[in-house]
Amino acid sequence: MVCFLCLHSAVSPLKRARQWTLTAAGLLVCSVLLGTGLSPRLAELAPFHVPPLTSWTNSLGMPFVGGLKPGLKICRWETRVRDYKRFLHEHEKSLKTPSFQQTDNHPVVGISWVEAKAFCDWLTTLEKREGTIASTAFYRLPTDREWTLMLGRFVEEDALPRDLDENADGAFVWGLSWPAPQGSGNFGKDEGVDHFAFTAPVGSFPANELGLFDVAGNVWEWCEDWYDENQLYRVLRGCSWRTETFRNTLATERHAHLPQAQVDCYGFRCVLVDREVFVE
């Protein structure tokens, strides 16, 4: 097996060490551990040591994983229809249903970045009032950098999502092979990887090594970040049930759209931040 990372001469004369890892899927992956000064794209593909993780569930029954960063908890799955209905009910609004059928356990779709942020703000207010979260804690969307952490990877240096996207190259969430293995996620129906024609209920596929579901497939997920310095488009990560291309399923792939955009393959997941101990 050829490791694509080892083929990039751009990283020399940096010191490199190859580390072979057996993934949960049984794929032997060669990772390149790089020193300082490497390109953002290659840094993003380098794995990091997974720290001890913690579990916590909020008042809506949304399960979170903590321990990746101080003061940060990440929801294990995408925000469900049932979660968003609670938000709409308190605002005396009804759910905009897509053209396909969903249950309460499916990820809510057709949600803009603006609406996703409003949900996070509402949930923060609700749980502070109930005493579920600390006065220093708040919900928001994951940053682009945090999304990369969700893949069990890290970004060594600061870079705009656009720059990382334009250099997209390399591994998939499941390894180095293409197409995706059977049962690895919910992708375009022509891929034949799963039996879902549209969205799948959250948690339908195996979680990654961090206990997070659907970090590839099901719905594109909004991130906090602007795509570039022009600040016109927000970032989405993770591809969706519509995804059928090699490029869009890469772990480094970003999608960009207007923050008001409502698309039936767009959704979101929440993170909980405690500003008292959180470190960027």
In short:
By secondary structure, the protein is an alpha+beta fold. The chain is built from 5 helices and 11 strands; from the N terminus they run ββαβββααβααβββββ. The longest helix has 18 residues.
What do these coordinates show?
The chain has helices spanning 40-45, 81-90, 113-130, 144-150, 161-166, and strands at residues 16-22, 28-34, 54-57, 63-66, 72-75, 137-140, 220-226, 234-237, 255-257, 266-267, 271-274. The model is unreliable at 1-42 (pLDDT under 50). The protein is of the alpha+beta class and 280 residues long. Helices cover 17% and strands 18% of the residues. It contains 5 helices and 11 strands. The strands form 3 sheets. A 5-stranded antiparallel beta sheet has the order 3-4-5-11-6. It is globular, with a radius of gyration of 19 Å.
Q: Key terms for this structure?
A:
17% helix, disordered N terminus, five-stranded antiparallel beta sheet, single chain, 280 residues, alpha+beta, four-stranded mixed beta sheet
Q: What average pLDDT do the residues reach? A: 82
* Count of alpha and pi helical runs: 5
Form type: globular
Order of helices and strands: EEHEEEHHEHHEEEEE
> What class, by secondary structure content?
alpha+beta
Give a quick account of the main beta sheet: strands, pairing sense, barrel closure: 5 strands, antiparallel
Strand order of the largest sheet: 3-4-5-11-6
How much helix, percentage-wise, in residues? Answer: 10-25%
Q: Which stretches are low in confidence, meaning pLDDT under 50 for 5 or more residues running?
A: 1-42
How many E-type strands?
A: 11
End-to-end CA span: 37 Å
* Beta-strand fraction estimate: 15-25%
Radius of gyration: 19 Å
